[in-house]
Amino acid sequence: MSSSSQSSTPIKSTGLHVGEIKPGVAKKDPILVADGVRRQFGGLVAVDVAHVEIPRNAITALIGPNGAGKTTFFNLLTGFDTPNEGKWSFNGKSLAGVSAFKVARMGLIRTFQLTKALALLSVMDNMKLGSTEQPGEKLGASLFPFIWKKKDEEIEAQAIEILTRFKLDTKKDDFAASLSGGQRKLLEMARALMTKPELVMLDEPMAGVNPALTESLLEHILNLKKEGMTVLFVEHDMHMVRHIADWVIVMAEGRVVAEGAPDEVMKNPAVIDAYLGSHQDTDLGTVTGRITLPTKGKDS
Amino acid sequence: MDFLGILSSTASFILDPTTMAYALAGLGLAIHFGFAGLLNMGMAGFMALGAYGYAIGILTFGLPWYLAAFVGIGASIVFSLILGIPTLRLRGDYLAIVTIAAAEIIRLLLLTAVFTDVTGSADGLTGFNGTGGTVTNPTPGAGGFNDANPIPSGEYGFEPFLDNERTWFIRIVGMLILVGATFAVWRLVNSPWGRVIKGIREDEDAVRSLGKNVFAYKMQALVIGGVLGSLGGLLLALSTNVNSSVYVTSLTFFIWTALLLGGAATVFGPLVGSVIFWTLQAFLGLVFPALAKAGLLPFTGIQAAQIRFIIVGVILVLLVIFRPQGIFGNKKELTFVK
Amino acid sequence: MARTSEVPVIETKDLLAGYLPGVNILNGTNLYANKGELIGIIGPNGAGKSTFLKAIFGLVNVRGGTITLNGDDITGLKANKLVARGVGFVPQSNNVFPSLTIEENLQMGLYQAPKRYDERLEFVTSIFAELGKRLKQRAGSLSGGERQMVAMGRALMMEPAVLLLDEPSAGLSPVRQDEAFIRVSEINKAGVTTIMVEQNARRCLQICDRGYVLDQGKDAYTGTGRDLLNDPKVIGLYLGTLGA
């Protein structure tokens, strides 16, 4: 397990697509395929995705301006919302009409923009909830500890192993409410791992997390890929996207408007106009005229 | 003023079947609200079903007492399903509204003259506990509960707990049910099932995203809490008669007071809360009239006795404002406390 | 770091503040802002950045220490009195009245001195030309970035002695974030003393004159924006090594 503060350059997956790169391009080994998914709220079309495929065992970033429909699309794919029309499948199995908890049990886990670490439970209880294998969660079995005690100990051991990786093991008996915002994000990710997912969908995992903690979060996401999982995440931080994403999908006004490797997408003029801005790699101090030289100089 | 008499009468309430009935219903409400976060405002309805189910089981269906008890429990399970299926997928407030209305509907159905052959309407039902001296409409041997009493005739115990064998039998049966229920609830909330329920209480979507069928869990909690409430009603039926005038909305709020007093999300809170609630009620119900008779209050004896209900209301308000976690509760765990 | 002989516009000494009884979020914060400066406050989550701004604005209980405005003690004054004295606050969210138009929102900013409306409106629309074109639009129909413009405009209407900004770039896409930071710089160049709390530490330090790094309720590092940007300790602990 790497613990250096300087993250090593991740090895990017290439050759994920089949044919010419354009929005909706097919992938060699897609884990998730969506067709004609459309969600309307009254007169507003929030999501209108003609076709998109998510490549297996790669890290895909979903970017786009606010209101582009990214979170709504997440909700539709994972059963937290129902589209007006469309079909989508996970590992070839259709997910249309499948309720949210069943989708989770199939191996598709999502996190939320506003962290849902259960603050009134302890960190360990949060982790134990993540496991899908505890027979004691059934009503009848719960009355007889001899049925579920052993499994609970196994689950606890699994949890401690994951918590140690996320450096939360010392807090395992504390209420999740006592964790800082960044630590709760880590807890949500750690908890998601307890479900042993195949596809992890992270909704703005870095939001509200200070930059130094961001690096360790990125390491954890890279580890997911190393362990064979697929990651799809929504983010606004382009440095992060460039650093770890193998593939980038751009959404705007509900539609997929661009796809491709990060460097290519970030050079796309339409994407720059609508989303990235032309100062992506520039020091704003020069743009605003506060500094005259790029390396030194200070005002008043 | 006979203070000693007041104190001894008050003390006798500690082991009273009514107190135990409240404790059971409070335990049910603890499951509903304290642990699962379900806003049930109709516990009186569950209790009515338990009580009337038992009485009707004996008088209309001719069942022996131990089978008639299951009629009440069965009725409460059906009631939970009817309430839960439409409302548990909606916001919690809807369950609250529906339960208030449903409990009242139950009460009115039990009150209406249309079903008087089965329910006794305004008079209620009596004489279903087997041979007994004071029931007004006895079918000798009906139900057979009193006949099943193994304790020989006589008075037992010591002041203020001096009673005959019938009362003691009911007390013992009541305590067995209460102990059994408390143990089962304790097991449940400290199990993985209990963990899922506590998670649902705080954030359903989070628990859903971890693969748990939230609707099923909420329904299970509703049914279990409802069964406990109906067991409370059963105890009330065993100790006296059944009458729809008992199962009014105030009863629901008395149970809430007892629960919040003891601690909403605790296992022993309902018991302690009920005991304190009832002894306080009994005490005030005797003290105020005594004070009035001694000329210290400007009310008649009967008026003074009603003051205790005002006091109960004030206590409920103060509890919610200043100590919502009750006696045993942990503020850090509660979702309704900020 | 030499101080000018002027009295700072805002100065806090050993500030202690918190929400829950017995738990202090600010554990002795010392900060000052001179006239015309753009001050940036960065730091990890839970460090107390937003709490600090709210303490200055009278929204959080101050339990110790002092806050002065141009030399006058304003510790413990309530928000409405502070507005009258010239402290302008732009919250991170719920920062406009959605059912009112942009124009009405701006009028709310001058609630205490309505006579100066026309002159101040001209100033604000000179900075936010977009707002001037859409005065009759309902604020509720605006996007997050646009609402933030309205909120800033409203705070500017009363010609504040100091402008407090709570994470102006929060939740915005990269292009809108850059616009927000450039706007803040423009406002400051027009003469408004500004203190801004930010999560996007890099951008914040690129434009501010001086910065403070808050950690566990105390000011851990301070220096010019450039010094902090290039300080290896600050980079290691707060900025991270990714990015320009």
Could you describe the 3D structure shown?
The complex is a heterotrimer of chains A (300), B (338) and C (244). Chain A has 11 helices and 10 strands. With 300 residues, chain A is of the alpha/beta class. Chain B has a two-stranded antiparallel sheet. Mean pLDDT of chain B is 85; it is low at 132-138. Chain C has a single domain, classed as Rossmann fold (3-Layer(aba) Sandwich), CATH 3.40.50.300. In chain C, 37% of the residues lie in helices and 25% in strands. Chain C has 10 helices and 10 strands. Chain C has helices at 49-56, 79-85, 102-109, 117-127, 129-133, 144-157, 174-189, 201-207, 225-230, 232-239; strands at residues 10-18, 26-33, 38-42, 61-69, 72-73, 87-90, 162-166, 193-197, 210-215, 218-224. In chain C, the strands form 2 sheets. In chain C, strands 6-7-8-3-9-10 form a 6-stranded mixed sheet, with helices on both faces. Chain C has a 4-stranded antiparallel sheet with strand order 2-1-4-5, covered by helices on one side. The radius of gyration of chain C is 17 Å and the shape is globular. The two termini of chain C are 27 Å apart. The chains are: A alpha/beta (300), B mainly alpha (338), C alpha/beta (244). The interface between A and C is large, with 47 and 43 residues.
Question: Could you give the distance between the termini of chain B?
Answer: 45 Å
Secondary-structure element pattern of chain B, one letter each: HHHHHHEEHHHHHHH
State Rg of chain B.
20 Å
Largest sheet of chain B: 2 strands, antiparallel
Mean pLDDT of chain A, as a whole number?
A: 87
Mean pLDDT over all positions of chain B? 85
Question: What count of helical segments of chain A does DSSP give?
Answer: 11
Brief rundown of the structure:
The complex is a heterotrimer of chains A (300), B (338) and C (244). By secondary structure, chain B is mainly alpha-helical.
Main attributes?
heterotrimer, A: 300 residues, alpha/beta, six-stranded mixed sheet, four-stranded antiparallel sheet, globular, C: alpha/beta, 10 helices, branched-chain amino acid transmembrane transporter activity (chain C), AAA+_ATPase (chain C), nucleotide-binding (chain C), BCAA_Transport_ATP-bd_LivF (chain C)
